[in-house]
Amino acid sequence: MDWIDLMQWPAFAASVAAAWLVGSSSDRLRFWGFWTFLASNCLWVVWAWPDRAWALVALQFCLAAMNIRGLKKADPDEPKK
C-alpha cells in the first residue's frame, strides 16, 4: 500500500471530525468544522485524482463550495442578523 492509498484514512477521519464539529451548538466549533470539512475535501481530491475518480473529485469541489458558504454563515466574529 503506497502513501496515496493511505490518504483515504486521514480524509475519512477529517470528514467524521468535521461532521461532529458542524453539529455543535458552539459557533466557534461549527466554524472550525467547516474548515475541517474543507481540509477533508482537499484530502479526498488528492486521494481520488490518481485513480481518475472524476465523480468523487467533482463531488468534493461541490461540497467545498457548500462548505465555503457554511463557513461564511458560521463565522463566530460576524454579528448575528
Structure description:
There is one protein chain. With 81 residues, this protein is an all-alpha fold. It has one domain. Helices cover 75% and strands 0% of the residues. It is built from four helices and no strands. The longest helix has 22 residues, at 27-48. It is elongated and about 45 Å long. The chain starts with a helix and ends in an 8-residue tail after the last helix. The model has no long low-confidence stretch (mean pLDDT 92).
Structural class: mainly alpha
Query: Total helix count?
Result: 4
The amount of beta strand, in percent, is under 5%
In one word, what is the shape? Answer: elongated
Nearest-integer average pLDDT: 92
**Unreliable residue stretches:** none
State the share of residues found in helices, binned by percent: over 70%
Helix and strand pattern: HHHH
The count of DSSP E runs of length 2 or more, i.e. the number of strands, is 0
The major pleated sheet works out as:
none
